[in-house]
Amino acid sequence: MMPGKDGFTLAREIKKLQPDMPLIFLTAKAMREDMLEGFKIGADDYITKPFDSEVLLYKIKAIMHRKGGNPTIEKQEVTEYNIGQYRFQYKLRLLHYNGDIQKLSPKEAELLRLLCQHLNDVMPREEALLRIWHEDSYFTGRSMDVYIAKLRKYLRHDPAVEIINIHGQGYRLCAHNGVML
Length: 181
What we know:
By secondary structure, this protein is an alpha+beta fold. The chain has seven helices and ten strands. Helix 5 (106-117) packs across helix 7.
């Protein structure tokens, strides 16, 4: 019932790319055949509307606990990035350039990491606000703008690196030769 693609097709595509990805169907389709199809695809649970949101939260927690979090994400954790002529060590919160080292604040490091994860692509503004500030409000938005300005200042020495505003969407960290280690 989604536009352009049904949930079963999407679930098959997800399972094909990441077989260990936890999957819960939350749907109005309550027929036995639909439920069986969902489980055949690999669903961990199949919940029909109306549903109890508290029960849903506990089911999600149980599935995540049983699966041990999301192993695909944990295996791919990147902690160092090359951004043009800069080297960013996320865990140490250090930005290296031509022998100089800039120590970053925790929020600066988190924001730069998110930008690096979206290197040369748009980092949605809402994603950063929710992941770093845990809310999307006018005040947290202004705070993030200040941190973006600070990061631009730190990255100003390399003309091949820039943070661009994408109106109505977010920011893009553009870097030639930007490679993750």
